[in-house]
Amino acid sequence: MKSSTMRTSKIRLLGVFLMIAMTAFGGSAEAARIALIRDAEIENTIHSYAAPLFTAAGLDPSAVKIHLINDNRLNAFVAGGMNLFINTGLLIRAGSDNQIIGVIAHETGHIAGGHLARTDDALRGASVAAILATVLGAVVAAAGGAGGATAVIAGGQGIARQTFLSYSRTQERSADQFAVSVLDRTHQSARGLWQFLEILAQQDPLISSGRSPYLGTHPLTADRIKFIANHVANSPFSDTPEPPEFDIAFKRMQGKLRGFLQDPRRVLAAYSASDTGVEARYARAIAHFRRADLDAALDGIDGLIDEQPDDIYFHELKGQFLFENGHIDEAVLAYRRAVALGGTVPLIRIGLAKALVETNKPAALVEARTTLEAAVRQEPRNASAWRLLSIVYGRAGDLGFSSLASAEYAYATGRTRDAIGFAKRAQDKLKFGTPGRLRAEDIEHAAKLAEKRKKDK
Q1: What is the pLDDT of residues 66-84, one digit of tens each?
Q2: Counting C-beta atoms within 10 Å of the first and last residue's C-beta, which end of the chain has fewer, N or C?
Q3: Would you call 236 exposed, middle or buried from its count of C-beta atoms within 10 A (0-12, 13-18, 19+)?
Q4: Which range marks the domain in which residue 312 is found?
């Protein structure tokens, strides 16, 4: 992974291409690029933590979208309705799975408490890029994959982060009260939330320096800490441990994040060769991969696969190791195994499709088409999948659907003018009244509305 301060729109993170890159506004000397990353395993882990809380809160777990931001600072926030954003820094620096669960419970309180009213109208139906551009006051560059064009969405330049994300002390207390209530309903401890607030309390001096975004938007008071501590002292669930699989997933997540996001030398020093735990071996395999030591990386991941042959994420990672080192046919086999084990995970399907497209074999392109069409049914705004589909359709000579996929890709990445052009091109080639033609008309209409909104600002 390249330095976050370098001006590039093509950063490989956790097995998938950079989806969103953001450049901070405001003239800060320390302005840096922030990447929104995707990883099937980590997303599944966070969803497994969050789903019981969402359900207990009366929310549909599938309706709340979780997004991971590559930023080492402690932060999490909700915006644009049912969107939860979590910094990788929070995930890496958390002391337990219960701390992460406590933070999610608190953010769920903001959603359930209707504290997002200020952002709902402004961001309703917006893309993730537009949400981040608005609430963070940034210019967002969205890239769907290698060779993908970069689109710049200018929005919210004059809107400070606090305008949208700051909560009153009353709202923070309300979210805390909701959090401990929902944790009790799921028979989980609030101790992790208490511990997290204690960590934040030690960071008060960082507010003025701008290095503590969580504290900048979530006011922390002694009364809040006292309230949570009192609940922990009296709740019958305070000493209830999380399920063992939660802790296993937590350790794997931290090892994976450190392996991909920290200096490989630091990772190998932290996870010595004598450490035979899964987390350590996982992190070391990734560190070796990032040091371009493919043999050591494969030795590490193959050892894990030997012990857990049905683990989809080990096979997925092996596919990535092989693909990015040019062993395409072997990568296809690894990804196929992951898909066979994982069934309907869109990101793993897209990984397989990338490898299949790279082979450029007719049979592989047919498989890639089927694989990608299944992926976009699950994630209709996945830019990487649409970009690959445009290639697959084009190589098959299906120029109408290739243009339609390009329109989907352009619209998903905020390039509304390009989306209009590709949608018109698709309409010229697709039969009137067919689903594809109707979808092209819808994209053209939606993109024109988006263009109008930009001009009206």
Answers
A1: 999 898 888 888 877 788 9
A2: C
A3: exposed
A4: 274-456
